[in-house]
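About this split. The held-out portion is used to measure sequence recovery: a designer receives only the structure tokens and must propose an amino acid at every position. Recovery is the fraction of positions where the proposal matches the reference. Here is one held-out target exactly as it appears in the evaluation file.
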């Protein structure tokens, strides 16, 4: 059982928050955004840096072309909802949950990650009139102008590379243009911000230092989300091109190890990088009541990754019923925006972007799926940000960083 369990649990908890809020007041929907704002939003090139949607690509009965509902299968991204929310493309994630640092563990992770990269490419190849792989910053605008969704690829957790860094070039050739060294636990490359055992490398390992150099050589944007503060400091100091935090938040809004304090937000921004705002780790998860725990224990375990769409929907129906009767406490859109606005205050509009962690546990009350993205534009306008600033936040900053990583690689290679 891989990340489907996490995605479904996160989405289901969100649904409980939605149900709880519905008892008090209606949750805003995209239709509540003024028409002028929606028109403005649709005129921007909209990009999200962290789409875990490939988790669904191999599920029997699930299609990117169908409109799904978070209340039915837990998914938050598909082509109809992307169009509704004005999402023009983004980074589709090759995620591998952390496992053993052994030869066997590396082989299994490598095969899983290469298969996930293939699934992304196969989804695009199956719908060439709707999607196109993007390899350069310039590709995004070109593909968008052609009326298609641009599909960048990224790696969340480089554990699948094992101790063979030639695999980074293999992933680069599949289309990967952004990579993070580590996830929830320490690995062979770096320390995680959340490993309960604490740090083992005090930042990057010796192999991790070679990892960052190889990323620079190839023109892969270095991503420090999930990494320890030491890793962030070292990445800023050592990377030959500015870095990104593809799905992080402000520690000043919620003090969680995955979030960045003001000093690190400022350091990333002043070095030319950017912090993309996540919709996870915004409030503490309250323990369930005895009644809720009993109700949860009474339903089956979440379905496996290879479960059919029908199986997932059947499980979700049971989970939604529990969440409606015994709703958990959830973060809301205002808290998400507080994280973004605080980061903007520290980093400025040239140092902020959006990476909400869709289909990977993201989503809050009032920002349930990508169809709700115009609400972010509406709030930014209400806060006084101009159109140029908002365009930078939605995609300009990220594409600048992609271009910068590739420009360094070319210059270093003498091209």
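Reference sequence for scoring:
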């Amino acid at each position: 059982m891989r990340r489907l369990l996490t995605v479904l649990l996160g989405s289901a908890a969100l649904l409980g928050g939605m149900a709880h809020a519905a008892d008090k007041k209606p949750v805003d929907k995209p239709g509540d955004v003024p028409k002028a704002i929606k028109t403005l939003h649709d005129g921007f090139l909209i990009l999200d840096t962290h789409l875990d949607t490939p988790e669904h690509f191999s599920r029997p009965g699930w299609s990117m072309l169908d409109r799904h509902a978070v209340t039915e299968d837990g998914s938050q991204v598909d082509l109809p909802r992307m169009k509704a929310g004005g999402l023009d493309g983004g980074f589709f994630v090759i995620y591998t949950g952390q496992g053993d640092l052994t030869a066997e563990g590396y082989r299994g992770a490598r095969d899983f990650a290469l298969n996930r990269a293939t699934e992304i490419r196969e989804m695009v190849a199956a719908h060439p009139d709707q999607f196109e792989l993007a390899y350069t910053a310039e590709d995004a605008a070109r593909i968008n102008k052609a009326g298609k969704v641009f599909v960048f690829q990224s790696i969340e957790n480089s554990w699948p590379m094992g101790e063979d860094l030639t695999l980074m070039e293999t992933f680069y050739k599949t289309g990967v243009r952004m990579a993070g060294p580590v996830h929830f636990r320490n690995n062979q490359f770096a320390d995680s911000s959340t490993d309960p055992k604490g740090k083992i490398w005090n930042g990057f390992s010796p192999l991790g230092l070679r990892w960052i150099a190889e990323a620079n050589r190839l023109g892969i944007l270095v991503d420090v989300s999930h990494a320890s503060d030491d890793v962030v400091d070292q990445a800023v100091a050592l990377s030959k091109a500015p870095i990104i935090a593809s799905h992080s938040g402000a520690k000043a809004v919620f003090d969680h190890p995955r979030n960045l304090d003001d000093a690190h937000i400022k350091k990333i921004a002043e070095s030319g990088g950017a912090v993309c705002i996540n919709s996870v780790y915004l409030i503490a998860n309250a323990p369930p009541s005895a009644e809720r725990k009993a109700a949860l224990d009474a339903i089956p375990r979440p379905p496996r990754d290879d479960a059919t769409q029908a199986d997932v929907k059947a499980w979700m129906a049971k989970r939604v019923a529990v969440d409606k009767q015994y709703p958990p406490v959830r973060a809301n859109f205002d808290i998400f925006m507080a994280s973004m606005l605080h980061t903007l205050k520290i980093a400025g509009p040239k140092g902020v972007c959006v990476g909400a962690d869709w289909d990977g546990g993201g989503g809050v009350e009032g920002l349930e799926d990508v169809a709700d993205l115009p609400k972010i534009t509406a709030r930014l306008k209400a806060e006084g940000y101009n159109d140029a600033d908002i365009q930078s936040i939605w995609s300009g900053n990220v594409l600048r960083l992609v271009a910068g990583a590739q420009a360094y690689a070319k210059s270093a290679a003498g091209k």
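Annotator remark: Confidence is low (pLDDT under 50) at residues 4-8, 11-31.
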